[in-house]
Amino acid sequence: MIEVDGSYLEGGGAILRVATALSAITGKPVRVFNVRAGRSKPGLMTQHLESLKAVALLCSGRLDNAFTGSTEIEMHPGRIQPRDISVTIATAGAIGLLFQSVSAPICLADTDVRVSILGGATFARWAPPLPAIQRVLLPLLESMGYPAELEIARHGFFPKGGARVKITGHPSRYRRPLVLTEPGEASIVRGISVASTHLQKAQVADRQARAAGQTLGQAGLKAQVEREYVDAVCPGSGIVLWAETGARAIIGGDSIGERGKPSEQVGEEAANALIETVRSGAAVDEHLSDQLLLFMALAKGRSVITTPRLTGHAKTNMHVIKQFLPVEFEVKEDALVRIECSGSVN
Known about the structure:
Blueprint: E1 2-5, H1 13-26, E2 30-33, H2 46-58, E3 62-64, E4 72-76, E5 84-94, H3 95-102, E6 113-121, H4 130-144, E7 148-154, E8 164-169, E9 179-180, E10 188-196, H5 204-218, E11 222-230, E12 237-244, E13 250-256, H6 263-280, H7 286-298, E14 303-307, H8 312-324, E15 329-333, E16 337-341
Keywords: ATP-binding, Cytoplasm, Ligase, Nucleotide-binding
Domain RNA 3'-terminal phosphate cyclase insert: 181-278
Domain RNA 3'-terminal phosphate cyclase: 8-331
């Protein structure tokens, strides 16, 4: 039984997601205590609970103490098997965070694995929006040997959620290391600005896109941002931008709409996030860096990435990964942060 302290560093849900994913992958049982001790409302919330159940179903595992508000859980994994599973999120919980829990296990079965999600939010605070996962993360994971698809049948926003999403993982045939140290030239930025049909009259998606394009243009970057109005249970919006470079890097920036927040500010925030990474000379934006660490650790070979700064999530993920896998992380902090991982031989 591997013991993981959920209060480590920021004490958030990332510890739970990485620990249970690695438990399923390695077959090692895990106990996570002090779950989300660093949050204003400690313990499992709905989205964490549903993520746990999804991982347990994928590996025919047994969960102990898995209920809303629980501050200590155990998972006793079985073997990852190809299957179709369904997840219901009754709140506006972030589907992007659930994806982080299942993204590696779903590619380690012998045949395809499908996860159908009803409910939850495609754009949520403190979580990667699903279009960012589609356009930035998934292409990099496929290059490493983790082919997966994410289909959005209906978007969901705070406070009601109501999304419909399907995640499909295809078997991983190899585990290539990732080397992304030079960003290359970002010749053009693409993007998608999304708003519910409730906000079409106010032209929210158009205003987000226009503001992003103007901000990028002032920084010398050309932009092509699509506008999309979608059916949703409640009003909401968000924008995702990405720049594909000649060096295989995909640099992203995103922002979500909130009540009282001008659409122009949403577009500017996403653009400025992308511009900051481009100007830093890093090949991976700071939010993407922590999402890649688990896959770097599972690769057969040495991976290395550069990112503008070392996030709390990245520090947390490295700490948890090393408790499950025989890997080492080397971090060099200078003008940029350089993260190297030895890779696992498992």
